[in-house]
What we know:
The chain is of the alpha+beta class. About 25% of the residues lie in helices and about 40% in strands. The strands form three sheets. A four-stranded antiparallel beta sheet has the order 3-2-8-7. A three-stranded antiparallel beta sheet has the order 1-5-4. α1 packs across α2. It is elongated.
Amino acid sequence: MSVPKYLVAICLLVVLLFFSCTTSVPQAENDSLSYLDVSNYPSNVYVGLSGPYSTQEKMVSEAILSAARSIHIKQALALDSRLVTSYRSDKGLQSFAKDEAASFDDTSMAETINQLEILDVYFDRDAGAVVVVENTQEDGKARVYESKYNKEGKPTWLTLYPKVEGYRFGVGSAKRHYFLNNSLEAADFAAAQNLLDLKTEHAYSIENVTTENELMERSLYQAQRGLLKGFTIIARYYEKETDTYWSLAACLE
């Protein structure tokens, strides 16, 4: 969705204030994902990233908007998914169409940005700007879950969902996109969709099967809708062997 001009102006004001009070900005090293890890911070700390832009000010502005969106998505994230397939016994799958959408309330984005305190800013060739912010209007609590790793150094949540009372978890993956922020957004959305698949509030399905001259045709329409409360990305992982990004998400039961 488009961002109102006044939000961009507010972000730029925050950026200018930050740069006027900072003598140097740390440069990220090779592992961009390490700068997105907020597991050592309380739950009212968020991270945003921009993707590459022509100026540092623009990158920081976009990263602040990204972090603010995470706060609004945490309040409530609405998902809508629709699937249509057509199958014929002599030809297999003939058509496949999928439409997925996510939305959240961004009407108070300006107020959210005003209550953010910038803790760190990093710059990286792939990520653009990575901004770590604290939401000063939210109480900081311990993180819901901290990743555990197997002997190969991979997080255990890749194969086994964590279990924490009051929460449910979803895992999503995406192949590498041209920009890091697009890769992570795709993996995050897949994790949200996984949460919807595991426990949907509304599901509708209709199937039509016909047989003529010993040929079977099957068409299927499915629709899902759900509202995720407390949605947040808990952890990320990059699998070099398959060039795949993974996201672990949690929401309230």
